[in-house]
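TL;DR need structure tokens for one chain.
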Amino acid sequence: MTSTHTDIPMLTDDQRDRILAAVDAQFDRQLRFTQELIRHPSLRGDEASAQDLLYGAMSGRGLDMDRWELDPQELAGHPGAGKVEISYEGVDNVVGTYRPRRERGRSLILNGHVDVVPEGPERQWQRSPWEAAIVDGWLYGRGSGDMKAGLAANLFAFDAVRAAGLEPLGRIHFESVVEEECTGNGSLSALMRGYTADAVLIPEPEEDMLVRANVGTIWFRVRVAGHPTHPREMSSGFNAIDAAYFVVEKLREVEERWNAEKAQHRFFEDLEHPINLNVGKIRGGDWNSSVPAWCELDLRIAFYPGITADEAWAEITAALAAIEHDSTGNPIAAEAITTGFYAEGYVLEEGSDAERVLEESHSDAFDGAGLKSFTTPGYLDGRVFVQYGNVPALVYGPVSRDIHGFDERVDIESVRRITKSIALFVARWCGVDDLGGRH
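>> reply
TL;DR here they are.
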């Protein structure tokens, strides 16, 4: 979805410099807000307090506010929706909209997710994952990089444009969405609600680079049956947990086959191992002294852009259906259901106006450095906008370490530069009226 606005003047050098200076002037305040956001443990289903904070921050900036609870029934009718296994009661998206007095510029979505993954055993962190400590140029905490620093950067980039005495000429939607870490249903719900624009920018932690392509993702659960007996008669029983290991080995063969096909998929040829199968959770059995009768595995697998989720799922289920016996002849029945992501990958085609504007803005913010792009074997909400909204999605954000791991952190100076780049992108993409420093 693109539009041309030939009457929008180019950003002058003076306006650029005013924006860059404005980011620096408010950066300490930006860091304090990001720390406050990290201190809200916005785990799945418990995002409300963080969304309250962001709602207040957006409304305090004079944005038109919208907040709604995700509707699992409505989402279930969309081909890009993930399977919902929790209650969506109180699971809200927040969107604040800036509308210029007269809309003459290109429109923009600044998107980010507020949900974070579980922190794991807290004793294995150097400090509390919710402390939001700053140490040696890094901001620590669960969600610091993925992606609360980016969420805050969206708002403070907008602040910098206005603090520089400039008024954007295009409509801007600031989206704080849920469910990015498990289904992608938050951004999808926002699109289904009617939020669209000429481009979207998502400041995920991407090492100061732009994502060119990313994989599709399916979450699924496999249940394996066994035959229970007393341990004194183990040879007459069949251990379902042992059988589950065998099933995973067969799924590893699918993973290996898909990785062997990487040369057939544009932008994935040079990745060492683009397709990853992860066993995320395992549970089974009922009693220490009974041979387990059942075992369940929760898994995640990736697949290439250009392959539909239905096609990938058909290969997975076919591989499971082909399992009849384990290596010792015990009969195996493995059944699978989807449990979350059912999302297809995407490629951001080169040469868009949005990418060109980001390249210019990145160069200004990074002392003349060129914008690099790369391919990621992880899930991104950019697929929602590319596949279902025909909107170019720029996934581009700061340097981070150990996201989804212990001691997650984001590089503070990288956040500063990314904020400058976003601010310049907003000004160039939407166009600005110069109020002469008076706002």
